[in-house]
Amino acid sequence: MMTAWVTVWGILIVLFQASALVPTEKPTCIPGFQSDMLVYQVVRKHLRLGTRLGKVGFSDCTERRAFPFHSDDGHFTVQTDGMLKVKRPIDIHRHREFTIHSWDSEGHRISVPVRVVHHGHRHGKHHHDVERHHGEREHHNHLHRHTKVDSAENTESTTDQQVPILQFAKSVEGLRRRKRDWVLPPLSVPENSRGPYPLKVAQIRSSEDKLKRIYYSITGRGATEAPVGIFAVDRNSGNMYVTQPLDREAKASYMFEVHAVADGAGIAEEPMEIIVNVIDQNDNKPVFAQSTFLGEVAESSPEGSEVIKIQATDLDEPNNDNSDIRYSILSQDPTLPSDPLFAINPVTGVIRVNAGGLDREKYPNYTLVVRAADMRGEGLKGEAKVILTVTHSNDNASAVTQPASTTDQQVPILQFAKSVEGLRRRKRDWILPPLSVPENSRGPYPLKVAQIRSIEDRVKRIYYSITGPGASEAPFGIFTVDRDSGNMYVTQPLDREEKESYMFEVHAVADGAGIAEEPMEIIVNVIDQNDNIPVFAQSTFLGEVAESSPGGSEVIKIEATDLDEPNNDNSDIRYSILSQDPTLPSDPLFAINPITGVIRVNAGGLDREKYPKYTLVVRAADLRGEGLSGEAKVILTVTDSNDNAPAFTQPAYEASVEENKIDAHVITMSVTDGDEPLSAAWNAVFTIVAGDPGGLFTVKTTESNKHEGIISTAKALDFERSTQHTLLVAVVNEVPFAIPLLTATTTVVVTVVDVNEAPIFNPIEKQVSKREDLAVGSEVVQYTASDPDTARKQIVTYRIIRDPAGWLSVAKDTGLIKVKSLMDREGSFVKDNKYTALIGASDNDDVPATGTGTLIIQLEDVNDNAPTIEERSIRLCHKDSAPQLLSVTDKDGPGFAAPYSVSLHGPSKTNWTARMNDSKTGIVLNLATVLDSGEYTVVLRVADNQGMAQDSTVLATVCDCTGEEVTCKGRAVAGSELPVILGILGGILLLLMLVLLLLFFARRRRGEQKVPLLQEDDIRDNVYYYDEEGGGEDDQDYDLGVLHRGLDNRPEVFRNDVVPNFMPAPQYRPRPANPEEIGNFIDDNLKAADNDPTAPPYDSLLVFDYEGGGSDAGSISTLNSSSSGDQDYNCLNEWGPRFKKLADMYGGGEDDDML
């Protein structure tokens, strides 16, 4: 039966493949773009001018290859060959969309939407620079294949590689004994090796591996110490790998130890020392100490004279051909009178005169381009310039040494006023055609440039002067004039790049006659000389070129500037490429536009794996390429195309994780990829494609290692629901594959580990409603929890975790909650009529787990609080006083509060009136009769709407005034009569005399002891006045309720000597074993102490005016004075004048002497 099924399936597969091979009819050509939407992905947020985004594919079904395109976004433009470029700089935020239009052969417009996506923002599944047709995109999305690659864990593919086998202990060829260590001749690994990595360099073997299972490891720099991980060893096979390219200039050698440990038997071999030397490659070109050397040579120097010594260095290995430098002169400018006029020693770099003919007057400067090349002149090269200034030798008689000696020089003669040749009249000024003076002239200075003349000099003595910038203004003194002859001189070489023209005025003054001529304006233009070399905007340009770029593709644009005069041959620059490194696969591989500086691909063959980088030396020369030149480097990095798929190192993984943990690490998977490390084509992207419908897991990479996929829990796993999960994980790159490749997958089996879970209350927060006067012992609610660990059959017990007022108790086994002490809706622990307690439920596991539930009791109000008056004192006039409004409050809720009622009690009924205001929430109090000024106690009984009443007292101060404005007068009032004032003054004088008399007697009695009248710490008794004495013979209406007004209207005062017995003690944290936790220990216990109602000071109501109904103390009359003479009362003399009488009575003193 099985054979029959296999046969049927085989036939179906053959038919399917055959149908796929049947040729389809060639579709009819339809004009338009190659895709319904174009998507371009960029890695940089900021796009500069000229950035190329890619080609736009368009066809009108003719032979045409160039088409007109139009973009409705002005930041982008499309060339006729379809190249989409940035027309104006722009920043891409997430993405930017626009439309491109073109026209077919019949003039019909065809449009396509375009989206430019920043690399940091993924757009669906579009990863290509240019989106292809959706049929092409879907071709390889779901193919799977396991690809075998070399790695430190998978070594079978490298076992056939010829590498040294390093054995322990036994004396083998190449080893020699040194103390207890085996010394191995150093291994050699070339730097900059292209891999593939990890690259096998040796195999470590122990002779014990024939009898035991040996595990190998390495320690030391390059392995377990910085730089970490450059070398690794397979712990089973002993294969040793280098994991990345080495750089001899960074580190020339590595030394570490190899260890061999037998399975279950400890160390199998003594550690063996390994030294790895890095073999130098010629990867550093010579670098000159200066980019430009300056020197001087006398024009009369004979042949062989030493001029200057140049020097270059090479970072490659010393005493090696890679650093053996030879010097040469590439060019000499100018080449006259002979070429070469100079020669260089190829070994020392000394430049000497090679021929005669130096002439400073003809050729004042020579520019030499020198080269330093390693490999004895055949390797990498560096260049520099040597500018030699030919110094003066006195081989020509000086024609001019003083200003007066230059009168025979042919210079313009500038005349004032009269119309002479070359002058034209303009208003009152005579305009002279500008003078021209070449920059950088070698003099001699001062150099005569013109002569100023006035026709008045025939009859008068004329003095000449000039004013303006360059003469009397900054820059000062560049031009001067001889005041007698009118000769005008330039005093120093001019520089056109600093100032290209000067304008000043010439003045002529007659001797003794004042101004002889009107001032004349002179303009001096500085003639440009080619004295500035082109300078590149950057010394090194960096660019990228895709390895699949076709010929003619634009790569980068370079630019140089020349400070010489614009639109002049001296600043007319031409570009050229001097060298290309490496020259393979073809030279020139790149071409440059000599005018624009745009570098393009000139030929095919770019291959990142073979030649990842190209260095071009470019030149910019003025005089249309024949003059002074400057050089720069262009480093082009060949970017990778994603032509290698990542592959898992294992086909399957197994892991376990505890339930209920979120973001818990499950397993780490690793992959390998043959593309450029750390590039988008190398970085891995992991996805869970099957086995996780509930989204319980996530997979991601870290910033430090894009080749490791870390699976962790996104949600809490439940052992009771599922004990195992099987995941299918796929891996791709950050960018799509450049060619059709299969996507690698692996299987991850995750086992869920059961853990003890805390009981769960249902609901987590329970609300009940109860009266606040619910009796003690009454049931509140039964609040229970269930244990989710159904397989463990555990018992749940209950306890109260937090009950701030101590009102509740809970049954340990049933969870029934009862009232332990009376509840109070107006208590401080009740918020918005709700009291909150925390209930705990614990299982009986070896390590119990506790769950919590919140019980919220909605307290129903009862009428247990009488209303009170807020104002405790008032002031008013004894005549025509204004009514006083007193506020009434009640702690109970609205149902047991307003409207209130009020009544007066005791003597207050006679002198006062009281009524409720219109809203029945306030009392209007007023005098019924005129009272003398003083203080009165008004007793008011206030009741709520249920009749619960309480007496409140108000202290009323009646002042001697009239009306609403209350003014209480003192004893001395301005405007009193004169006798009253004199009486007051007399009383004051009498008091002063009495004080002086007391001081006199005190001084006599105390002698030298000085006791002040009043001590600083004197405490005087206060006299209290009680305006209610209780009933008398004539007071038949005395109300005993007055005695209780203090109790009924007591203030909120607490005492600190009674421990509250209705609040539980909080839980204090025990002292931690870890000293680092002491800070948290102090903070937690401080908070607990702050909230501890049982900690001192203890708060309870303090009542001052209630003396109780009786006393156990005896009568005070039973107290008498002691007649014993043993008691010493002399200390009373030291207690001040207040104890003087006692001191006299008991201790003796002056009073005894007077008797």
TrEMBL record:
Biased composition (Basic and acidic residues): 128-139
Compartments reported by the entry: Cell junction, Adherens junction; Cell membrane; Cytoplasm; Endosome
Signal peptide: 1-20
PROSITE patterns with a match to the protein in the record: CADHERIN_1, CADHERIN_2
Key words of the record: Calcium, Cell adhesion, Cell junction, Cell membrane, Cytoplasm, Endosome, Glycoprotein, Golgi apparatus, Membrane, Metal-binding, Repeat, Signal, Transmembrane, Transmembrane helix
Region entry Disordered, spans: 121-160
One GO BP: calcium-dependent cell-cell adhesion via plasma membrane cell adhesion molecules
Domain of life: Eukaryota
GO cellular component terms listed in the entry, alphabetical order: adherens junction; catenin complex; endosome; Golgi apparatus
Domain Cadherin: residue ranges: 188-288, 289-405, 436-536, 537-648, 649-761, 762-869
Membrane-protein topology: Single-pass type I membrane protein
Function: Cadherins are calcium-dependent cell adhesion proteins.
Transmembrane segments: 978-1001
InterPro entries given in the database record: Cadherin, Cadherin-like_dom, Cadherin-like_sf, Cadherin_CS, Cadherin_pro_dom, Cadherin_Y-type_LIR, Catenin-bd_sf
Single GO MF annotation: calcium ion binding
Name assigned to this protein: Cadherin-1
Organism: Gasterosteus aculeatus aculeatus
